[in-house]
Amino acid sequence: xxxxxxxxxxxxxxxxxxxxxxxxxxxxxxxxxxxxxxxxxxxxxxxxxxxxxxxxxxxxxxxxxxxxxxxxxxxxxxxxxxxxxxxxxxxxxxxxxxxxxxxxxxxxxxxxxxxxxxxxxxxxxxxxxxxxxxxxxxxxxxxxxxxxxxxxxxxxxxxxxxxxxxxxxxxxxxxxxxxxxxxxxxxxxxxxxxxxxxxxxxxxxxxxxxxxxxxxxxxxxxxxxxxxxxxxxxxxxxxxxxxxxxxxxxxxxxxxxxxxxxxxxxxxxxxxxxxxxxxxxxxxxxxxxxxxxxxxxxxxxxxxxxxxxxxxxxxxxxxxxxxxxxxxxxxxxxxxxxxxxxxxxxxxxxxxxxxxxxxxxxxxxxxxxxxxxxxxxxxxxxxxxxxxxxxxxxxxxxxxxxxxxxxxxxxxxxxxxxxxxxxxxxxxxxxxxxxxxxxxxxxxxxxxxxxxxxxxxxxxxxxxxxxxxxxxxxxxxxxxxxxxxxxxxxxxxxxxxxxxxxxxxxxxxxxxxxxxxxxxxxxxxxxxxxxxxxxxxxxxxxxxxxxxxxxxxxxxxxxxxxxxxxxxxxxxxxxxxxxxxxxxxxxxxxxxxxxxxxxxxxxxxxxxxxxxxxxxxxxxxxxxxxxxxxxxxxxxxxxxxxxxxxxxxxxxxxxxxxxxxxxxxxxxxxxxxxxxxxxxxxxxxxxxxxxxxxxxx
Length: 697
Fold this sequence. Notes:
Layout: H1 8-27, H2 33-44, H3 56-76, H4 79-110, H5 116-127, H6 134-139, H7 146-175, H8 180-211, H9 215-235, H10 240-251, H11 260-283, H12 289-292, H13 294-322, H14 326-337, H15 341-352, H16 358-398, H17 402-405, E1 409-412, H18 416-428, E2 438-444, H19 449-467, E3 473-479, H20 483-494, E4 498-502, H21 515-524, E5 528-533, E6 543-547, H22 558-572, E7 575-580, H23 582-594, E8 601-605, H24 611-615, E9 623-628, H25 644-651, E10 656-661, H26 691-695
Helix pairs in contact: 1-2, 2-11, 3-10, 3-11, 4-5, 4-7, 4-13, 5-7, 5-15, 7-14, 7-15, 8-9, 8-10, 9-10, 13-14, 13-16, 14-16, 15-16, 18-19, 20-21
């Protein structure tokens, strides 16, 4: 067979073999798989054994790969952390650009003996960087760490400035001067672009997701949006990678971390597109030029040492100003030390316009390899260390949260039309560290074949949702005298801690809002019960409004339901509004802090129960109204809750609704409340001063 390979099947097969084999072989040597992919490209590329040519397929897949990498960086970033650290990110980006820019300009002119224009081009290459090692951070689950957020924000600033510098160097080369008018127009177009993509893409995505739930269709739609944002960025004079990253930020809240869509996006990117990009980078490198003379080696070493040293200084100063640990500093440096997309573009442009000699171009390519290797190794070591530290902190802090983390959920379904929505809600309320299987339950009390077929289809539907996020489901079809008996028996048999089910729908005029089934279930079961009615996909909700009754903080299930609601809000990135009495608000604030949640929270303080009507006046169909109920024998029960069903039925019949009845009479949980600690425990209050005092405000 002639080399390089020309048959599409043979080319694709060889690439897949390299993607499969390279990480396995290099893992034992301690070499990160990212570096392994680049080395694989060197070996099989035109400057290695010549097995493959860098043809159009590598151009296309490689371009999509870097766009995919930047998109994942945007979609996986913690948006709340970005809002809190964007100033630090911009400062770091400016420092990470300016130090290599100034240092590279001087080193290139005086040590490499280049002209000032060429020195400016080389300096722009040294000042930019690529998040080449970001997949390592993703693998270790550190995308929400402060160092990662600041590094991503700083990368966009540094790359944007480096690309503007590159454009001006080319303008001087072609026209002899800098065009200030073009810079002003670029700034105006950037504002228009940012506003159009932000509002347009969010509106389109919300509408599309509410109309189409097919997995493949949603994936194609998201990928099309990423490419469209990248193309529009190119049309206004920006690099496509900036558009892809911005698309990730815009679509961030619609793609929760624990969703099937995110799983598919990461799988396709990490399996195909990103490895293709890395192999394509390796195929550019010609290590044989080292043999031809020491000039290329000297150029490569000077550029590499200058770039890495100044990036390290920028990371060191920024880490000191942000009070990051040594591990955080190493992670910050590792993420911003790699070079690929912008540097390759500057190298090719400089060579095309005669600004770079062949030796400098080859030296720049070797510098890319050195910087990618240093970035990958540093990031992997720092990520491992940080992950171990976080694991130790979690073990020390878990304590009373252990039961909430390792809860055993029972998801009861009967209708395949609503089953997937109920299961997604249950998974979003589940702690990511929970390894227990979800019990999927369908109960039937007759031999009707149609009903049984629908119930089995509902079980298959929730299993498909859970499998997409690697959660095991135990499917249970039970024949019992009634639904309540079946639920109670399965909960005892499986050791389940909570029930998640769909809300009852009134079948006639005399039927109650909750239905007789719930009333029986509340009397016979003390576990937490969560009922949902969702008209839109849970990941398209804008806000969660939680109505909390008085004295809810004294219930044994207080921390459990609060953990579930906060986990849901954290997963889908929505804002939360708690509507509660002043003392309860203080307990909620303290509990959220002690549990380690980082959320966008607002509070509406009640003076009396009539204020609930005023607080709920602005609830829209894009919100999730959550009501914390109370059993009649519980401390937080009052006559005000008796009117809640009719109020919900009258004013919120077309709204998304979540009803939670907390666990009662369970094991008393230790609830740290640093905002307003308990002075006495309800369990030890003598005679409880009569129940009337607890219900009275």
